[in-house]
Structure formats: structure tokens, C-alpha cells
Design a protein that fits this description.
11 helices, 225 residues, Urease accessory protein UreF, mainly alpha
């Protein structure tokens, strides 16, 4: 992989990317509130399970397929994948998260040379979701597909660990231990995602949907999801 491609993927995976990912916990805060992830070990298990049962079966394969579609200039396929991502968000706050981050990343792309104006306009015609907007940004890096997914998953892991540190709460050393556990699981999760086709891609994590609905009315909270 070219140095420039690696640097661009690191940029996309950075928590400093101004797309608002730090403001979401993806129901982790509700899991902490209901004592499902109220310790370091419980939070670690929760996030590893979320990686394999949710991310590896839904967002990661959607990102992989969208990158291929962007590189093939297949706008119909891109639109279909974007619609699928929207349909998998089972609560208003989870849908708002993917829409807000997708729009923010699309706005970021308007100020960079990693996507063409035609590609940006194509996605803007729909309600852009974060996985499909990320796929557009990653497609222009010319990095291999697997590396694009590794970067996406690591960016997700860093954001979730920061959410765990704030909501459990935990110290920085505990956060690094959780991140170490997640990074060990990211490669097999990515390989699983790459092996899935349209029929294998799925979004079935009922407890995430339930906790998200509960989080929307949670009395005290730090995060938007």
C-alpha cells in the first residue's frame, strides 16, 4: 500500500476528524445505566460482542460493498446500499447518528480532493449515511479493501472506548486494555465481513435497539445515542 493511501486511511480513522463521532456511545451509555456494562470487563465483553454481532455483519460488509460500487461508478448500487443502512437503524437516535455523521463527512469531502464533485452530488441526492460516505472517502485512497475496513473498525473502536471511559467511568489505562482487546478482534471481524454477500449481510441486534429506545428517554446522559 502506498504511503499516501495509509496516511489518508489514518486520517479517516482519526477521532479528530470533525464528524461528531465522539458525541455518540451507540447505546453503551444505556448498557452502563442498566448494569450490563458497568465494569471494565463487562464493557469489554459488550464491545467485543457488538463488533462481531453488529458491526461485522452489517456496517463493515456494507462499507466493503459500497467501496467497490464507488470504484465501479455504480450509482444505483450506492443508492441501494445507502437505503439499506438507513433501514437498519431501529431507533430515531441511531438513525440521526448515521445521518449526522454521513452529512458531516460529505461536507468534509467537499473541501478535499478525495472525491469528485459528481460523486459528492450523487450521495447528496439521497440521505447520506456514515458507512456509505466513509466508503466514498476510502474508495479514493486506492488502499486495498481489507485495509479500508480495518481503518473503519479501528476508528469505531477508538470512539467506543472513549465513550466507555466517560460513561462507566474508567481510567485511561483501562481504556487502553479495552482497545487492545478490540484490536485483537478487528482482523477476524473484517475477514468475516469481506466474506458476506447481500444475502449474508444483516442487522439483527435486538438489545441494541431496545437500549437505544430506552436511552432516548434516559433521565441523565452524556451522549446523543
Amino acid at each position: 500500500m502506498l504511503d499516501s493511501s495509509l496516511i489518508q486511511l489514518m486520517w479517516l480513522a482519526s477521532p479528530a476528524l470533525p464528524i461528531g463521532g465522539f458525541s455518540y456511545s451507540e447505546c453503551l451509555e444505556a448498557a452502563v445505566d442498566t448494569a450490563r456494562a458497568a465494569t471494565e470487563s463487562d464493557a469489554t465483553r459488550w464491545l467485543v460482542d457488538q463488533l462481531h454481532l453488529s458491526l461485522a455483519r452489517s456496517d463493515l460488509p456494507a462499507v466493503a460493498q459500497a467501496i467497490s460500487a464507488w470504484r465501479a461508478n455504480d450509482g444505483i448500487r450506492v443508492a441501494a446500499l445507502n437505503a439499506w443502512v438507513l433501514q437498519t437503524r431501529e431507533s430515531s437516535e441511531l438513525r440521526a447518528q448515521t445521518e449526522q455523521m454521513g452529512k458531516s463527512l460529505l461536507d468534509w469531502l467537499r473541501n478535499h480532493t478525495t472525491a469528485t464533485p459528481d460523486q459528492i452530488e450523487l450521495l447528496a441526492q439521497h440521505q447520506p449515511t456514515y458507512p456509505i460516505a466513509y466508503a466514498l472517502a476510502a474508495s479514493a485512497t486506492q488502499a486495498p479493501l481489507r485495509e479500508c475496513l480495518l481503518a473503519y473498525a479501528f476508528g469505531w473502536a477508538e470512539n467506543m472506548v472513549q465513550a466507555a471511559i466517560k460513561s462507566v467511568p474508567l481510567g485511561q489505562s483501562a481504556g487502553q486494555r479495552i482497545l487492545s482487546a478490540l484490536t485483537a478482534q478487528i482482523p477476524p471481524a473484517v475477514d468475516h465481513a469481506l466474506a458476506l454477500d447481500d444475502e449474508g449481510r444483516q442487522a439483527f441486534a435486538p438489545m441494541l435497539a431496545i437500549l437505544s429506545s430506552q436511552h432516548e428517554v434516559q433521565y441523565s446522559r452524556l451522549f446523543r445515542s
